[in-house]
Amino acid sequence: MPHANPASKVDAQGRSDGSRDHPANKKGAARKRMVFLDTETTGLSPDQGDRIVEIACVEVVQRKKTGKHFHRYVNPERDIQEGALRVHGITSEFLQDKPVFAQIAEELLAYLRGADVYIHNAPFDTGFLDMELARIGKTPLKSWVASITDTLAMARDAYPGKRNSLDALCDRLEVDRSGRSLHGALLDAELLADVTICMTRGQNVLAIQDAAHGPGHAAIGVTIDFRGLDLPIVYADEAERAAHEEVLCQIDKASKGGTVWRKVEPAFPH
């Protein structure tokens, strides 16, 4: 039975909508491209002859998905193991008329060239991609891209001692995965992009913990040097100082003289 991926329309060559139009080779592109990549395979071991059956890439620019993705089904030229079939549901019959990896390699590399690539459990996917590239005389994936980041390692750093599968991260970060009954490369790449954006949302603000997620979730941020900024000093006016003093008096009364601010707070400048 053909495998249907609800996230895309697939033509007879395993090509999904939105994959042709991408900025990988646009001269002078100033914006940083993040590409989230996922594969499905015939099994677990490229060293034992397992092959890629599906590959998907989702582009993110300025922390927003652009809709310009790359998605192909691939004829692996071999049978699919039962365990893998149970995971992704892609059958050999469905893949019979799909291109082999050699036929999609140039387009894939053109899409990936120069991008910062993010993969969940990167050694697994890069192992398969490097094997497929070597079979057609190409250099490993890392030689074509700016960087490869393992988002599983990122998650383990952010949430030590917790489950960090893609499903677990979706639940923890409240990313909707209701459409994920089977593993599919395009849907998983979309979810990975959403999860990573959530995990790194502190990187474009000050490193302040997100109180909504509690003390167990470390904030990830950047250091900003304010010394070069000319920031105006704004003082409270008389009404604001009076209102502030009234609140302190109420707290002082309720806490029987335990107002901490009166002990540490300097006088308002006039």
Compact overview of the structure:
The protein is α/β, with parallel strands linked by helices. It has 9 helices and 6 strands. The chain folds into 2 domains: 167 residues, Nucleotidyltransferase, domain 5, CATH 3.30.420.10; 33 residues.
Which CATH class of the largest domain is shown?
Alpha Beta
What is the fold-level CATH name, i.e. the topology of the largest domain? Nucleotidyltransferase, domain 5
Main β-sheet description: 6 strands, mixed
Low-confidence blocks of residues? 1-30, 204-222
**Element string (H = helix, E = strand):** EEEEHHHEHEHHHHH
Strand content: 5-15%
- How far do the termini sit from each other? 78 Å
* CATH architecture designation of the largest domain: 2-Layer Sandwich
Count the helices. How many?
9
Explain how this protein is built.
By secondary structure, the protein is of the alpha/beta class. It is elongated and about 80 Å long. It folds into two domains: 33-199, 2-Layer Sandwich (Nucleotidyltransferase, domain 5), CATH 3.30.420.10; 232-264. Strands 1, 2, 3, 4, 5 and 6 form a six-stranded mixed sheet that branches. Residues 1-30 and 204-222 have low confidence and may be disordered. The protein has helices spanning 82-88, 92-95, 101-112, 122-135, 151-158, 166-172, 185-199, 238-254, 261-264, and strands spanning 33-41, 52-61, 64-65, 70-73, 116-119, 147-150.
